[in-house]
Amino acid sequence: MISRRSLLAGASAMAALPLVPRRTLATGIASETLEAALATVQIAPEGYPQTEIWSYGGSVPGTEIRARQGDRLRRKLVNSLPEPTSLHWHGIRIDNAMDGVPGVTQEAVPPGGEFLYEFDLPDAGTYWYHSHNQSYEQVARGLQGALIVEEAEAPDVDRDEVLVLDDFRLDPETGQIAGFGNMRDFSHGGRIGNIAVTNGIFNKALTVKQNERLRLRLLNTANAKIFQLQLQGLEGWIVALDGMPLEVPQPIPETLLLAPAQRADLIVDVTAEAGSEAHLIRLEREEGVSQILFSVTGKTAESRRGVPAPLPPNSDMVVGGLDDALLSTLRMEGGAMRGFQAARMDGREVGFREAAQNMNFWAMNGVVGMPGEPLLTAERGQTVRVTLQNDTMFPHGMHLHGHHFREVLPDGSLGPLRDTLLMFGDEAREIAFVAHNPGDWVFHCHMLTHAAAGMMTRIKVLA
Ligand code: C2O
Ligand code: CU
Asked: What is the pLDDT of residue 316?
């Protein structure tokens, strides 16, 4: 357990500064429009300069979108940025045409252009939206926001808190988002920031009561940072992962890992005494640092409530037919220290050195970047099993669009539904899913500099 002292030491002097007020959203924009534009916000502690961001609605994370399960969502993206962009709705089992992947499902929206996204929301849960063009840069500049799809009947909690965990790399002199050409970010673990934030501020604080029951919707929208999280003075259960409810709420492990793009919905009770503090802690080189402070003022009840009921399941999520599944393998190689012998890049064979000169460092099944042919072509409704073999030294967060999958565990049982799988170096893991959603779906690493440097493929589901 983290001692109070190491917590304070790790939190550093920054955490003692007063709260940075949240920026209010830009006004005068019709609710159905999502404008991507430059904005200026305070991310660094007070006394440091403000930061220019690229944002949806003037803040980072951008305007929170809330809808009900079964709703149709309609948002007109207006591009007021100096570069082309697009919107991807991460984790939504969406119409392929609305998936927002330039070169696959649409053309990038040029500066001054618009694109109307309109689609159904089949599943309740915690999702997010972000740019899918030059994502390693555009998402890092702030083009991301939470998309919350509410259950028809809300679970029995006192509060619902959306907590977007992220990191920024800021130039300490100018306060500006920095360092996009860094070769190391592409070839090693990815672009890691120098300030970790929650909902755009580094010292997020909430006031709670003892025995209050909270739903914490944790989202990791960072480029590459794997959040290693612990709770202090809060106890409870994981009720959903990557938006999808667990059949049975699971006790929260001592350390909860959240890879880039992953989400976890927790239901926790405040067990810290009135007058004390609780924390969401993140580990930085084994040391606990407060990511979110919960000040406990008073008590709501004399004791905790019982185990929460599971969230209602989303429909059509059974993964069966494993024995007759279409089989595929995705071998990941490259990166610093190992590289690869040879791979196809732009239709010809290259060595690692030549690929590296083009800022490409990774190959999947011997191809750098999007292959000419899909990894696999499935009939609609067919069960697919993919073995992912990570022959690199680095962790990767592999994300499949348009579908949720289950991990096939070594004993043959199936893990929870997810849309992003965290794999460590030299691991092999297997996933299975039903290819229910017709279209071309990209499958890539969500360490966004890795995706930009070769870790991108796609699958095809026939109509
Ligand atoms: Cu969250 Cu292809 O992305
Ligand atoms: Cu990766």
From this structure: 84
Q: Is the shortest distance between the CB of 442 and ligand 1 below 6 Å?
A: yes
What's the confidence (pLDDT) of residue 422? 98
444 CA distance to ligand 2 middle (Å): 8
**Model pLDDT, residue 184:** 96
**How far is the C-alpha of 434 from the C-alpha of 429, rounded, in Å?**
17
Residue 42 has a pLDDT of 97
- Omega cis (within 30) before 253: no
**Residues with pLDDT less than 50, the chain:** 1-30
By C-alpha distance, which of 97, 193, 175, 201 is closest to 139?
193
Ligand number nearest to the C-alpha of 361: 2
Amino acid at 352: F
Which positions ≥6 away from 348 have C-beta within 8 Å? none
The per-residue pLDDT for 7 is 33
**Ligand 1 atom 3: the closest Cα is on which residue?**
90
Closest-CA residue to 196 (of 162, 217, 221): 221
Exposure letters 405-420 (e unless 16+ CB within 10 A, then b):
bbbbeeeeeebbbbbb
Cα of 447 vs centre of ligand 1, distance in Å, is 10
Ligand 1 atom nearest to 91, measured from its CA: 1
**C-beta 458 within 6 A of ligand 1:** no
Tokens of 120: 């159904």
Q: Please tell me the predicted confidence (pLDDT) of residue 31.
A: 52
The ligand with the least distance to the CA atom of 441 is: 1
d(CA 206, CA 394) in angstroms, rounded, equals 35
> Distance (Å, rounded) from C-alpha 288 to C-alpha 359?
35
**Nearest residue (CA) to ligand 1, atom 1:** 90
- Cβ of 81 closer than 6 Å to ligand 1, yes or no, is no
The reported pTM is 0.93
Ligand 1 pocket, residue 263 CB under 6 Å: no
Tell how far the Cα of 455 is from the centroid of ligand 2, in angstroms. Answer: 7
Report residue 74: phi and psi, to 5°. -135, 115
